């Protein structure tokens, strides 16, 4: 409907937009309390060898268990956290949860492989990100290599690469591997590819989607895999949903894949149930690892 605002101007109220705005405001309010109330939940999606299907590791994906609305995907709440400090508390909760889950899996003799954490820009500058991992490693008797980090190209948008470089170099010194996530969709230039020390390139789902449908996506994927290979990086394709996509990527030389075709992100208990047992030689006591620190 319309309402008179002043003598000559008419303001048009879009009721749907208003309702959406109110809902967002309510969500934002609840989000402030979510970390303290332990409402963040971590789901795990496997990374597998594209040729053999062997389990290689997990990616940790956050969800919010909202008291009324149920389990919300990150797309519903991460945008609301932008420019706030809330993302710090959430990341803290995610890393702590992953640390505890890793400890439990190890104690059960399972081999989860490294768990990748999606790290926001704010934790790539200064001490905080480093301290988060150090605490999780120490408190759970883990090693740095039990974790990995995924960063999106967007981190290069606001920060100079130098600021992030210091943190990333320190992570890598401890044996933590770094992935460049959603490659080809953001703000990384070839200069970043040249100068930035990372271990893994993740091909974005939007390209994988085009396999079998769109020759350009296929050509770009081939070029990205070549680029990764030439730079000596591991290549991971995300969002693989079909056997055709898996085969295309494998034949194009991609090493690792992730997607519904292999497994959806699942809670720790379900994800753990599919894990291989650790080889006997690799069964170190949980506390021994922390001595190395
Ligand atoms: P991402 O890091 O690129 O994660 C991959 C997304 O693709 C996940 O969505 C995953 O559930 C989804 N996915 C995986 N396989 C398939 C598939 O075969 N088909 C389709 N259609 N989707 C698939 P999700 O869990 O909704 O996460 C969305 C984004 O939110 C993530 O994208 C990541 O950027 C961000 N995110 C998730 N967890 C965290 C977190 O703990 N911290 C931060 N800072 N960001 C996170
Ligand atoms: Mg990711
Ligand atoms: Mg990704
Ligand atoms: Mg993505």
From TrEMBL:
Q: Can you tell which superkingdom this protein's organism belongs to?
A: Bacteria
Could you identify this protein by its name? Signaling protein
The portions of this protein that span the membrane are none
Leader peptide range in chain numbering: none
Task: From the UniProt record, list the coiled-coil ranges.
Answer: none
